[in-house]
Fold these 2 entries.
Entry 1:
Amino acid sequence: MKRIGTALAAILMIGSGLVSAGAATLRVGIQDDPDALDPALSGTYSGRFVFAALCDKLVDISPDLKIVPQLAEAWDWAADGKSVTFTLRKNVTFHDGTAFDAAAVKFNIERMKTMPDSKRKAELAPIVSVEALAADKVKFNLSEPFVPLLANLSDRAGMMVSPKAATERAGEFAAAPVCAGPYQFVERKSRDLIRLKKYPGYWNAGAVGYDEVVYYYVPDSTVRLSRVRAGDLELAERVAPTDLKTVRDDPNLTLHAGQGLAVSHLMFNVGAGAKADTPLGKNPTLRQAFELAIDRNVINRVAFNGEFLADNQMIPPSSPFYDSAHKAPARDVAKAKALIAAAGMTRVPVEISYENAAGDSRVAQIMQSMAAEAGFDVKLLPMETTTAIERYLNGNFEAYIGNWSGRPDPDPTLVAFFSCSGSQNVNKYCNKDLDAILTQARGEADDAKRKALYAKATDIYLTALSSIPLYHPNWFFAARKSVGGIVMVPDGLLRLVGVKPTN
Amino acid sequence: MSTIEAAPVPAQMRAAGRSEIRRLLREPSALIGGAIILFFVILAVFAAWIAPYDPNAPDWIAIRAAPNAAHWFGTDDLGRDVLSRVIFGTQASLAAGLVSVTVAVLIGLPFGLVAGYFGGVTDMVISRVADALLACPFLVLAIALAAFLGPSLQNAMIAIGISAIPVFVRVARAETLVVCTEDYIAAARAQGLGHVAILTGQVLPNVLAPTIVQATLTMAIAVLAEASLAFLGLGQLPPAPSWGAMLDVARQFLGEAPWMALFPGLAIIALVIGFNLIGDGLNSALNPRH
């Protein structure tokens, strides 16, 4: 009998051991399958989401959008703003055991600037050269004062990969990335999962709470949430606003919500090819009428249960550079009609294209209905993702509901959409005065002066209305109560340092 | 010669037609199916008078309202009356069924007749093309075509119609092969009638019955296909109501607003059952083997 008892006790111990071993795995449901897992090549949010566990950056951003140290402990701008010197953290190693030092930083910046397919070239363009002054000192020389550089380095452009791995496996680095983050790469099954394990040599290993983290690709947000509720996942990113009640009502779940940087906006083709030749494309007054015809608060309430932030600017209110003087105009159908009449029209046709996703589809139909009251005959053209992106990039649309992930600094967003040669300026808006202001702002180290410049820029783009910003999505993660230490940051990336099982 | 004169085929067909209608009226499944289809046809034709609300008019303060006295079927995610949208959605479903099957019959039937009648190389070419199209599952082909043509009800109907063509080629060809062995065809040839006259006057009337049965059954499939394409965003453009698109939106609110899915779902089931019942009834009434 005693033997049986001992055997049972042994089985129970083994069982509890298995349970605790299982509990040290964090299973995360992500909406998209990331693209190349190489910071130089990555172009997706889901890729950045995984990098947050895999690759540390020179600097990070805090929840209040301040630049904080990560692999660089300190930095010092030259008086003329044309160089910045970083003091690097000591005793940091990459996942292959090689040392992280000034030479590695130089290698990484040069790699991202010269690699043929690198998507980081624009973000690092102002860097002319990198000098390794000492093992822990590295100096970036710039072609012009460029204040947003630090914000750029808080994202993929600042992620450091192992020079040894990147050189030896140059062509296939993305298949097994080697960085200096809290977790190291184990395996990837395409369109299924990405498995990482804790890197014991991490500089802040004591704050890493899970032995393993697995990202499962679960495209449907309702399914992601169901799997968290069933205990099949510990965390789901991007829970749909319409599902938040379910999360709040579930005693096993915690809703982690945070303001985001992203913006959803209605772009009008004002200069790209034949599709720009429309009443709304040619006449800013009509675009103003369109803005007055819609009610952003209704869009937010109906399409997103009021969980997002209705707003009229590309920069979210959480940014220190947000211009609170430019309030969103209230809906005014009578004034919209008057503006249409002033433009010599009674009915204004417009075709709105969008990616056929639930949120955009609802927003489009709400706008269609509201704008019709003022005199806009809106035709909706939903498209599947590939076609939508292709048409967007080619400026093949009259109006398009764009979704931009945003950046911590206003410069990348405003330059991308409103400078004459901006990378996202697919609707071909161009204003030389605005270009000059944006160039001046990126060289202005004084925050107050910089804010004043962005206020001028806001005034210009909100008058031209080549794009009508509609709302800023907030971030919603649903996690089981057993996951502690989650901190929401406006970039919507899940930082795993400090995240631990609570039981 | 007298034998031929004694058996004028069209007259025989007309007589058979009357008796078949009588047989059809005695088929309970055909009657029930017919009643269901008639009900939906009335809904579609008189939608503007029957529906209590404009199907596209949103009510921003009645979002996803449960069924109540004002909205019998509740409202959807934009506060639109689900009952009105189900009623107007009938138009898209019936149009898809009728138009796509008509397209398929108008193209498939002549090819099937020609293949069966002439045989040889003509038959081989037509049959292989039909086989190749049949090798691709119906819905997959329809989705591929609709995705290629772009989202709209018209394109969805074309895609479904093209996908259904090979079925009619096969049915018409098989029946033609049987009919061509009949004595009256030999007699017609002996009379010196031309191919066109024989095909239209002698073969076609005898191939029509199974084609009609097949067309009715294919309409059920076409209705489902239209709903599937709309569900995938390849059908009717928003905000025009379509049962499949309504189900797609409702899917996101199954837990909190099940009425959004229930009523369009029931409508699809009812219409498909209607077409299937009437197809079975027609099969019993028209198939000479019964």
Entry 2:
Amino acid sequence: MVDKKNILRVKVSNSIGINVDKCYQCGKCSAGCPVSGNMDFTSSVMMRMIQIGEEIIDKQILRSQTIWVCISCGICLSRCPMEIDIPEIIDYLRQCSLEKKMQNKKSERNIIPFHYSFLNSIKYTGRIYEIGVAVEYKLRTFNFFQDLSLAFYMFIKGKLPLFPNIIKNRKHLSFFFKKYKK
Amino acid sequence: MTQIGFFPGCSLKGTSSEYAQSIFTLSKMVGINLVEIEDWNCCGASTVHNINNKLSVTLPARILTLAKQQKLTEIVAPCAACYNRLCIAQHQLKINKFLRNQLFETFQICIDNNISILNIIQYIEKYIFEKIKEKIIYFFKYPVVCYYGCLLVRPHKILNFDRLEDPQSMDNLMKKIGALPIDWAYKTECCGGGFSVSRTDIVVKLCGEIIKDAINKGAEAIIVACPMCQSNLDTRRSCINNYLHKKTNIPVIYITQAIGLAIGIKKKDLGFKKLFVKPTFI
């Protein structure tokens, strides 16, 4: 018998206090979702999968592209008749997937490295240093030629600062990162 | 001179400096002194909540703490993503006592629930419009579509701004400066937000649909209030044109730029030079 505490429906309910059983599969979330075409299964299917509460299916969710291509635009929540906070569930699932090292292989090549590059920029300078984020992203993905001409034009128009905008109290900020390091 | 706190956010310091420029020019005209929150950090915007939930609340909470320490009671966050994150952090700390205590004990973060966070539209409605009403000299007589994007209106329960699916505030402001806002279907559709670099294909597809509908409805400009929407719709235009298989030249203009033009501020002072798609008709 599987330890019931480890299944996602229980974890979602315990950690973020959302009862997934409220979903009755009307499908409005998937219908409104701007990226449902890029997902391997849509948000309403995902809700049903969590409801089932089987470990094998849970793993499928955590390994899916669905949780990473979600842009968190919030249409699903705004149209849900039961007001289930699907973006928050997906945020939680992403973090579960990172904790268990089950990241989706496709998203590991673009979306996830971008998130980390962004986070590192905040960690080291306190604000976003666009060139730093871009360089780190390129190093993480080996995608060296992407957007070079765009970057050039942005630089010419003065939209790409050459130097980072470093904040004074970086200690305070790095303390956050230290505490929240998983 | 009225003093109001100002949280520019990272985009206004770099990729959307024209937005900042137009806001400052407008504010100066009506005698408002925008005081930048000192030593602010990035709010985490569209990214941090994906991989670290607690950090995504702590980062904006630090900004609000700084605002409190600097005795600001009202702050303007022109970037829709920053506005969204600040409001969510304020809400989270209001309802979650445990988190509030934890942040105070470990990081000395203590926010003021009464600080009001204004987005750019609220700021214009509250402080700017009354004072420039008589100064409108060049009516912005163009058919436009107002694009709100996701982050200004959602999640509605927390932000409580305008109508959820069919917001009107920007349309009303545009009407007042003489524009003809068109009713269209993509007002609050997503532009792809933070995927601009990591999943350009998604951004191009979503923005392509937005631009297609704007053109089909006969608009001559898209009016926005979010730097992320603007940069996705504007700087990615060559890819979007490829996606649509036609050359589109509908400009994407910040609402502050449009209002600035109407009251006779020079294009140069509103940062029009920095737009990728030139508004040739103006």
